[in-house]
Amino acid sequence: MRGAAEGEPSQKNPKLTDREKRNPQDAAGEPSQKNPELTDREERNPLGATLSAFRELGTQTAALHLALASDPSDPAFAPEPITPADLTGWADAVRKQIESARGLLGADHAVPQVPDVALGLAGLAGRHKIRHHGDFHLGQTLRRPDGRFMIIDFEGEPARPLEERRRKHAALRDVAGMLRSIDYAAASALRAVRDAAEGEPSRRIRECATRSADGWATAWAREAGAAFVGAYRETAGAASFLPTSPEAFDRAVAVFVLEKAAYEVVYEANNRPDWVEIPARGLARAAAALEAMRPTVTASSPRTR
């Protein structure tokens, strides 16, 4: 497993039991309260059922992080303050990952100018880093018939050294990993639709099918991501491994989404070149999203030389 940050449960969350402190999966496996009215509606609306599943996954992901941050007596898991040196190292690692992706993509995929990632991580200063999953995506979850999730495979990203995977880091890297996985799921479905449409003799039908699928995939990924993040933030509350403002939360997640997309580019280029288009587009969107979050300097704001 790799690092993340400490969390203090919000008032809605009961204190973790001794069993949960010993076994984070016990905490992560607890289902959130079900809404019977929502369940009835979901039976008629498959999209609603999907979003409900992502809310549950967001709840359990936050519970997992709270459990991993709950035992200060174990040096291997005790939360630690995020230092300026941590932020510098993380920003440098993100830049290095982006440059690796840029080198592999070449002229066929123009990687946009990436905003200052250090600024995006600034909201984590003074918060806590903890052990976290480290390679969190949909393939690392198992959904049971009762709607609960089991989170598996805590060995971290296989391409990274073991020592790096065990380091404490920002818990939001897991959130970013799941958001990239949601995007992958939508893009993979869209790819399948496009492949199937190639066999359609009518050009008009082919174009109509792909346009419709593209709009649906984009909307689904947006809503699924929002459901996951919303439930995560509600459950984690004022946990000390999270930034203190919603804006800082969003900027930090955007940086880690950027890092994850760049990592995926390198992986796909080396293992499945035909799939590199998916993370390449994700990398471009992540750079644009981070740029849009850049704080603006107003006339009354102090300037630094």
Helix and strand arrangement:
Elements: E1 2-4, H1 18-22, H2 24-28, H3 36-44, H4 46-68, E2 80-81, H5 84-105, H6 117-121, E3 128-132, E4 141-143, E5 149-151, H7 162-166, H8 172-197, H9 203-236, H10 246-271, H11 277-292
Helix pairs in contact: 3-4, 4-9, 5-10, 8-9, 8-10, 10-11
Q: Any overview of this molecule?
A:
With 305 residues, this protein is mainly α. Helices cover 58% and strands 5% of the residues. The chain has a single domain (2-292), classed as Aminoglycoside phosphotransferase (APH), C-terminal lobe (Aminoglycoside 3'-phosphotransferase, Chain: A, domain 2, Alpha-Beta Complex). The protein is built from eleven helices and five strands, in the order βααααβααβββααααα. The longest helix is centred in the last third of the chain and has 34 residues, at 203-236. The chain is globular. Mean pLDDT is 82; it is low at 1-22, 24-39 and 297-305.
- CATH class category label: Alpha Beta
Low-confidence runs: 1-22, 24-39, 297-305
**Oligomeric assembly:** single chain
Instruction: For the record, give the distance between the C-alpha atoms at the N and C termini, rounded to a whole number.
Output: 41 Å
CATH superfamily: Aminoglycoside phosphotransferase (APH), C-terminal lobe
Written as H for each helix and E for each strand, in order along the chain, the element string is EHHHHEHHEEEHHHHH
Task: Label the overall shape.
Answer: globular
Q: What structural class do the secondary elements suggest?
A: mainly alpha
Mean pLDDT: 82
Helix content: 55-70%
- CATH topology name, in short, is Aminoglycoside 3'-phosphotransferase, Chain: A, domain 2
Give the count of helical stretches: 11
Count of spatially separate domains: 1
